[in-house]
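Something for you to look into today, if you have time. Could you write out one complete protein record for me, on any chain you like? Leave the record below and I will have a look.
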Amino acid sequence: MSLLRFLNIRKTYRNVKRVRQIVRVLLKHGLGRFVEEINLQRYIPISRRLRTFGRYGIYLEKATLAKRTRLAFEELGPSFIKLGQLLSARPDLVTKTFADEFRKLLDEVPPFPSEESVRIIEDELKRPLKDVFSFFDETPVAAASIAQAHHATLKDGTDVVVKVCRPDIEENIENDIAILYLIARLMLRYIPESRFFNPIGIVDEFSKNIKKEMDFIIEADNATTFRKNFEGSETVYIPKVYYDYTTRRVLTMERLVGIKIDDFERLDREGFDRKDIARKGTEAYFKQFFEDGFFHADPHPGNIFILEDGRMGLMDFGIVGRLSEETMEGIANTFLALIHKDFDRLVQQYIELGLVTEEMDTEKFRVEFKRDLIDFVEPLYSKTLSQIDIGEYLDRITHIAVRHNLKLPTDLLLVDKSLLTIEGLGRRLDPDFNLISVAEPYATKFMRRKMSPKRLLTKARKSLDDIADFLSTLPRQLRIVMRKVIRDDLHVKITHIGLDRLIRDIDRSSNRLSFSLIIAAIIIGSAVIIHSGSGRLLYGLPALGLIGFAIAFLFGAWLLIAILRSGRL
């Protein structure tokens, strides 16, 4: 047997073992119906399948489906925690209820042994630890699902933070990604309506994001970009990356010494102006949104420190967002419409920002979406800017978009998520904080820059190029279409919505009917044998007939349990 074949067999065995573990955890948290829907029950022994019968009602009384899913994700470890965190920013895909629950996922796990940290650092840097650091604290200061961090001091006396990837995390996550693709394919096969949520697309996005998070070179480059964007800033400081001591699995950055932004008592004790912090911090984010088009997408308090000189220090650059000129323009227009209470413009802007699917009736959608938006924004007419809760506004706008099946861009949702966090933190720092008023100068400046003659000329030239390309390719495209018509080779693709589900239900029903007929035949045959009285007797009755009745009873019980568990009597 070749080594490659052996490794493939070993990987397959490991994946099957992990699938069984996933199924057990899902069953434990009352998600057995989903397991059965996508036909994963074949990975668990029959005895365990029978033991889960009747548990659905108990779990439904204890917790909501969203909460049980979140608890299952927490128990399943890093891959599922990260998947849940990704889905928490996608209420357009998983509904607001699940998104809110997934925001509670805790990315806090026990640290791995410091000996492993030392081994990984030495393997990655190709030198002993003592040749790099004059001091290395083996007790980690933080531990998360992908990595943990240690304080250290370089040979030149510079205090740094060393982030070390967990051992075997890449292999474990690769295995989980393969299993998630399997689950996504099963969902598409057995639950056709899941196509709306695009499970394959979700796993693709998750795979791309988590692989970026595990590559510390990418995080180092993100940090360097932020450092360049805020070079010379008097309000924000980005730590320096030490590339000589950074690899894909080890990240060495300058250590920031400061006060966590939500440690309000210490900020007050040290004499910092909390109102000033709220304003400057928000301005720093609007600079990222409207000037850089590149923003820190994980602004929770653990990643933001107030330094001794009053500047705000940012940490953890694994999750970032990028905005195109069109998206930046849409965000700027939205804020300006809110500020000037131009609600017709606001309605139009959200229609343009959302991505309407081809299946939707565009005109009907415009009318209904505009009506819902107007119903929501009308009460804002009587409010001042300081009275408008941007968090509630973004939350309700997203809810309306989800209701109308809008496919919101991921980066736009990251902006919404960041704004919600920023406003919540800003109001805790300063009860009178108003995010919209801080946004106005940045949005206005962006729109003025957009309307500059140079930019308009560039945009017009691009439009002319697009028209020229269209006109130059039009004759060739028409020839292709006409050739297909002449050859009778023009095909029309028709998609039957829900037909796969109907076929599956008919197939399942016919199988159950056939199974029922077999059971009935066994019962009739056993009754004939008992009535004849021939053969070896057991308890005064023919043994073969009794065995037949026992088999029929077991098959009947099995069929009844399957019907009851499906919830379709």
User: Anything to note?
Assistant: Confidence is low (pLDDT under 50) at residues 1-11, 53-61. DSSP finds 22 helices and 13 strands in the chain. Residues 453-486 form the longest helix (34 residues).
